[in-house]
Amino acid sequence: MVEAGVDSSSSRTTALHQPRQDRSPSPCAPRAAGLAPDAGACDLVTVPARQGLEAVDILRLRDGVGPVLHDDECDTLGFLVPPGTADAWDVPGSACTQTLGRGVRAVADGPLLTGAGWLVAPEAAFSSATDPAVLRDALGEAARTIAAVDRCR
């Protein structure tokens, strides 16, 4: 039996991957008094959608996913990570960009993720940003999963 929203041709379900057009304020932007001075900053790790969707599944299983953006064509996903992550990011096939305190609004309206919307909205995320080490591990596991699936075709 195949349930609605389940892609039986891949290794994981797609039920939770319906892009949302929620334009909520950036989770990296200050929302309440008492936040740290750098709370308006965040970095953005962008990855191809296929690998990113696998990583989102992995992170959700481990309660470790922060907010995630998608572009209009759903070719690219963007994981919000703490500021400073871009300084040491070295994962092949991905990029990490500083937003320089502009938050996600500038990134979502700029060339990185034009017309972006939330895949994992801030209110549905387990944290305000994904831990970079946890994301690195999830992206590696996602790449290995995709390679295994592709070998079996």
Q: State the separation between the terminal residues, measured CA to CA.
A: 21 Å
Number of helices: 3
Order of secondary-structure elements = EHEEEHEH
Approximate strand percentage? 15-25%
Give the averaged pLDDT, no decimals: 74
Which shape, going by the Cα principal axes? Answer: globular
Tally the beta strands: 5
Query: Number of folding domains?
Result: 1
The residue ranges in which pLDDT falls below 50 over 5 or more consecutive positions are 1-27, 29-39
Describe the structure.
- By secondary structure, the protein is of the alpha+beta class.
- It has one domain.
- It has 3 helices and 5 strands, in the order βαβββαβα.
- The chain has helices at 49-61, 103-109, 132-151; strands at residues 43-48, 68-70, 76-81, 95-98, 117-120.
- Strands 4-1-3-2-5 form a 5-stranded antiparallel beta sheet.
- The protein is globular and about 45 Å long.
- Mean pLDDT is 74; it is low at 1-27 and 29-39.
- Residues 7-16 have a biased composition (Polar residues).
- Residues 1-32 are annotated as: Disordered.
